[in-house]
Specification:
Radius of gyration: 35 Å
Number of helices: 43
Length: about 1100
């Protein structure tokens, strides 16, 4: 290829238009200028691989080797793809400014995508040949879990020899399905392999030991589960419900078949489009991804694989640290090899600790170490052991606080401020750490799917949903009782606890288990029978409503309820009744209902502003919508959330946006690819980090994993040769040897995870643990912590804070529980009260004073605030001048109700008409009226006025679900009668105003006597509410009298409240003169 410009020539030209352009280093130049051939780049953490790849593209485009649209870049997340694409396009625009890129070339045409998105595109282009509809978006983890749950439930009645809870079996089905897709295997292949293996092992005649027995039990469990896996996979594929793994698996198979049977037609198309391919984070690619890409771009096509074997942390999804070493073999190519090891991120102390970890990772083969950038500072590393987890969290918060509250930092704009993160190995650590930052008034952001569940607003929603659907979820209820909605004190909490125990003992009776069963089996009675809701703390709330004062006193112990506490609990219990009745709708409706009840919208908007306030609730609603898309129930959704909350590495990692306005708390897996100025790694205790996991993914001991020999990457994994065994003793030794090898491999992955965590920090790193964790006894610091602490002694800028002695005795957190005053004083509330007091005591500015202040000020922010103040003063002044609003000459009956109830609100609606949101209750009312019309065989249109006004305050009571409304109406006396008129439209003059509406039904009571009836799907009204609503009946009565020329005294009027089967005939409803007086309330003023 003809080379016109070197990498330095290009850098010189671009520096002329952008002095901040980074001139490539001697390490980067060989990569940028490498020939058009396959290559592997080992790029260490923070080594500038994105910039290097961007400059590689500049070099190729400037020398006319490729055009921008001939580049394909692939990475793992949309965020990473977006950043790489943005960087390359930005550099190409600079190239154009420098005169090295012709104007007619469009830099926006390059393709940078995720691996899965690209596979989906190839599949969509060619799926027709295998009869698959690949246009639908892949389903998410929650939707797949729901389908798996349904299949497990369906098979559970078939007497299969399956051990474990439903949730654990569902997880094993999901894991097996994923591994089958990742390794291009079928359930039948695993069944055949397992049956043959069991047959061979049954020939051994000597005594079986426990490891052998347990191994055979796992084989039997896998055999029993595989038919469910097969049904799960077939159901999804037949209904077009493919996962991302399915897309990749099918795409890999499609390309492979194209190469074998169709003269490599797909490969020829893709290679002709993309002359150069960049594969980012290649160490994380799975067997199927490599198979897919190597069949498209193998045989020496210019593919550059960039990655870091030290960051291979996804072994659980068939990604291996050896993929970079085996690139040439996988792609049938002779690849050049480069190192990119100068880190532009980490200061020296952090880098030295990272290199200590690299030494541990490279025990089997030599791996090059990272080197510091020329201007790197010393940096800081602290290794510390504290007494308790609480103290550990407090010390991390204190360490960050010194930098967080630095006066110079506070002056900087958001994008220049230092950033902070706490990277946890286990989510169970998050609460205490978050609390420690809260005590110092430092905001936190818990990142990821598991993190979303832990955000206060979402946690409140989940707590209330669990309280409504799972009567044994007392911990969920406690969150609500102690939270801002009820804010019960310690005395009332103790009183509720003692009352619950006393009532349960006296009655020896609880319906919690019955309700749980009813909800699981979707029994109809569960959603409306409040009597289900009697031995758990949730059930005791219902008793507070039922028991008489004398009965309540019988069960009360010391302390007794306070008057205020009992009132709050009874009000809350009534609310639970109402909410429980309305759980028949969708999951998203239930979430919205609960969110509204808890007033979360207001709370989050005040807390985070209108732009970001609802962010977490909306993300949660999106998760729920994906789950219910495939018919998921609320109960199952809550179960899936529990799985998501407990998972440490198995859920798809979140895409992290680094923020400077909060300390971000997230798992190490989720942190990969991001960087912060200051990082904490807590929990470096034995069994926590390195993490041994709740259950190993070793296929010998885990039925959710496929045999190693059936995996595509089996050559890179420990092996076990069953043909070498002739006795159960040999088998036991082989099983134990394989288990040791597997543990060693997982331990090495934990070491690489530690490397990822360390290299996220730029300036400061604190690595901590505590002697006492969650149990009673002391826990030793892990070997990782020991490695860090021992290394820190010889690292400049590093220090160790640790007592050599492990303390005797039990955990102080268990022995001396924390005590505090109740309720806890919230500093934020005190600050708000202080500001409110200042506002109350201040004198208001006049308009003239504001003008003078604006003229004198040089502070842009102050001028902006004063200008806003000026506009507010003008608006208030304008508002003080009342405006007359004249009623239109045509009104609907609904408008009459507004006129009676809230003339000012009506005036505003007339002055500035706005469309109404039609909520689900209004829709149910409309659906019921449509059903009733059909029942009477008298279809009629719903008027536009009614649609426009059906969400008004006059009709906002919560309706019952349609099926219950239908059943209730059919059971009423009205169903036995035949109306003489249905949906009677009218237009009647009242004074000079035309009133129009529609009467639901008219019945003939006796000769020349009639009754107009309005069907109500909400609650029964009484008192002032009924008197206000009766204006509607007065209008209907008058209209029908005029329409049929019947004396008005011969017509009665009634509301029939359908769900309660109650007919109400208001007394003293308005006559014609009363209606005229009402309409004459003009002009209105606003």
């Amino acid at each position: 290829m003809s080379i016109k410009y070197s990498a330095l020539d290009i850098a010189k030209k671009i520096t002329a238009v952008d002095p901040s352009f980074r001139v490539p280093t001697q390490e980067q130049i060989p990569i940028i200028e490498s020939p058009l051939a396959p290559a592997v780049v080992i790029a260490g953490a923070g080594s500038g691989k994105t910039e290097t790849m961007s400059q590689r593209v500049l070099y190729l485009v400037a020398n006319s080797i490729i055009t921008p649209n001939q580049l394909l870049g692939l990475t793992f997340t949309r965020k990473a793809a977006g950043e790489l694409s943005k960087r390359i396009k930005y550099r190409l625009r600079q190239l154009k400014k420098a005169g090295l890129l012709p104007d007619h070339l469009d830099e926006s045409e390059l393709t940078v995508s995720t691996y899965h998105s690209y596979a989906g595109k190839v599949l969509a282009d060619h799926a027709i040949r295998i009869g698959i509809d690949a246009d639908a978006d892949p389903i998410g983890e929650a939707a797949a879990w729901q389908i798996a749950f349904e299949e497990v439930t369906r098979f559970s009645g078939n007497d299969l020899p399956i051990n474990g809870s439903t949730a654990s079996v569902v997880q094993e089905v999901m894991d097996l399905s994923t591994q089958l897709a990742e390794n291009d295997r079928s359930a039948n292949e695993i069944i055949d392999y397992t049956e043959k293996l069991l047959s061979n092992l049954s020939q051994f005649s000597d005594r079986q030991t426990v490891p052998v027995i347990e191994f055979k039990e796992e084989l039997q469990q896998r055999l029993a589960i595989l038919p469910i896996v097969d049904a799960f996979d077939r159901r999804r594929k037949e209904n077009g419900l493919l996962t991302f793994n399915d897309h990749m698996s099918i795409a890999a198979r499609l390309v492979s078949e194209s190469k074998l049977n169709h003269s490599d037609d797909i490969g020829l198309i893709e290679r002709s489009k993309y002359k150069v391919v960049l594969l980012d984070e290649y160490q994380d690619t799975s067997f199927n991804q490599i198979k897919f890409l190597s069949n498209l771009y193998g045989n020496n096509h210019p593919v550059t694989a960039v990655g870091d074997p030290n960051q291979a942390i996804y072994g659980w999804r068939s990604a291996s640290s050896e993929t970079l070493d085996t690139f040439s073999q996988s792609f049938s190519s002779k690849a050049l090899r480069f190192n990119l090891l100068t880190t532009w991120r980490n200061d020296n102390a952090i880098l030295d600790l990272a290199n200590v970890v690299i030494d541990q990772i490279s025990t089997e083969k030599q791996i090059a170490k990272l080197t510091a950038r020329p201007n790197a500072k010393t940096g800081e590393v602290i290794c510390a052991v504290y007494d308790t987890q609480i103290q550990e969290g407090q010390e991390i918060a204190s360490y960050f606080a010194k930098q967080w509250f630095d006066k110079e930092r506070e002056k900087l704009p958001a994008d220049k401020k230092t950033t902070f993160a706490v990277l946890v190995r286990s989510r169970s650590q998050i609460d205490l750490i978050q609390s420690a930052f809260g005590e110092l008034n430092i905001p936190t952001d818990v990142v990821g799917v598991g993190g979303l569940i832990n955000t206060p607003e979402v946690a409140d929603i989940i707590a209330l949903l669990r309280t409504l659907t799972m009567p044994e979820s007392g911990t969920a209820l406690m969150r609500l009782l102690t939270g801002p909605h009820l804010n019960l004190g310690a005395r009332d909490l103790m009183a509720l606890g003692s009352f619950t125990k006393s009532f349960a003992r006296a009655n020896d009776y609880s319906r919690g288990a019955q309700l749980k069963q009813a909800l699981e089996e979707n029994i109809e009675i569960a959603s409306t029978a409040d009597e289900f809701a009697a031995g758990s703390i949730i059930e005791s709330l219902e008793q507070l409503l039922i028991l008489t004062p004398a009965e309540l006193k019988k069960y009360q112990k010391t302390p007794e309820f306070t008057e205020e506490g009992l009132a709050r609990l009874r009000k809350f219990a009534l609310s639970l009744r109402t909410l429980r009745r309305n759980l028949n709708g969708s999951i998203t409706e239930a979430i919205s209902e609960v969110s509204e009840f808890l007033s979360l919208d207001t709370e989050v908007l005040v807390r985070d502003g209108w732009q970001n306030g609802r962010k977490n609730i909306d993300r949660f609603l999106d998760e729920a919508a994906r789950f219910q898309k495939n018919g998921g129930s609320l109960f199952n959704f809550l179960q899936w959330l529990k799985i998501a909350q407990d998972a440490e590495g198995g859920l798809k990692p979140a895409e992290v946006d680094v923020r400077s306005d909060a300390v971000q708390i997230l798992t190490i897996h989720a942190a990969k690819g991001a960087e912060w100025d200051y990082v904490a790694i807590p929990g470096l205790a034995e069994k926590n980090f390195p993490n041994i996991g709740k259950k190993s993914d070793n296929w010998i001991t885990n039925a959710g994993s496929i045999p190693v020999s059936m995996r595509g990457d089996y050559q890179q994994l420990p092996s076990i040769s069953f043909e070498n065994f002739s006795t159960n003793k040999n088998l036991k030794d082989g099983i134990e040897s394989f288990g040791d090898q597997w543990k060693s491999r997982k331990a090495m992955e934990e070491m690489r995870l530690a490397y990822v965590a360390i290299t996220r920090a730029k300036q400061g790193l604190i690595c901590t643990t505590s002697h006492f964790r969650t149990g009673e006894n002391a826990v030793t610091p892990s070997r990782l912590f020991q490695l860090f602490a021992n290394a820190a002694v010889n690292i400049a800028g590093a220090s160790v804070i640790a007592d050599a002695e492990i303390p005797d005795g039990i955990n102080p957190m268990k022995e001396n529980p924390i005590t505090a005053a109740w309720p806890k004083v919230n500093p934020a509330i005190l600050k708000l009260q202080e500001v409110a007091a200042l506002v109350d005591s201040s004198q208001p500015y006049t308009k003239e004073e504001v003008v003078q202040l604006v003229a004198k000020s040089n502070d842009d922010e102050k001028i902006g605030l004063l200008t806003d103040l000026q506009m507010i003063i003008n608006e208030i002044k304008v508002k003080s001048n009342k405006q007359d609003v004249i009623l239109p000459t045509r009104l609907s009956v609904s408008t009459l109700l507004y006129l009676a109830n809230d003339p000012a609100e009506l005036a505003l609606r007339l002055r500035r008409p706005m469309p109404n949101h039609i909520d689900k209750y209004a829709r149910r009312g409309t659906e019921f009226h449509l059903w009733l019309e059909n029942h009477f065989k008298h279809p009629a249109l719903i008027s536009m006025d009614e649609l426009f006004n059906q969400n008004s305050s006059a009709s906002s009571d919560q309706d019952a679900p349609l099926d219950k409304l239908q059943a209730a109406w059919l059971a009423s006396n009205w169903a036995k009668l035949q109306p003489i008129d249905v949906e009677v439209g009218f237009e009647t003059m009242i004074d000079a105003t035309l009133i129009r509406g529609r009467i639901d039904a008219v019945y003939k009571v006796e000769d020349d006597h009639y009754e107009v009836v309005d069907w109500k799907t909400g609650k029964v009204k009484s008192g002032d509410d009924l008197q206000s609503a009766s204006i509607q009946l007065a209008m209907y009565r008058l209209a029908y009298a005029k329409l049929k020329n019947v004396p008005i005294e011969n017509i009665s009027a009634a509301f029939h409240y359908v769900i309660d089967n109650q007919t109400v005939r208001p007394a003293d409803i308005l006559d014609e003169q009363g209606l005229i007086n009402l309409v004459s309330k003009v002009p209105l003023q606003i």
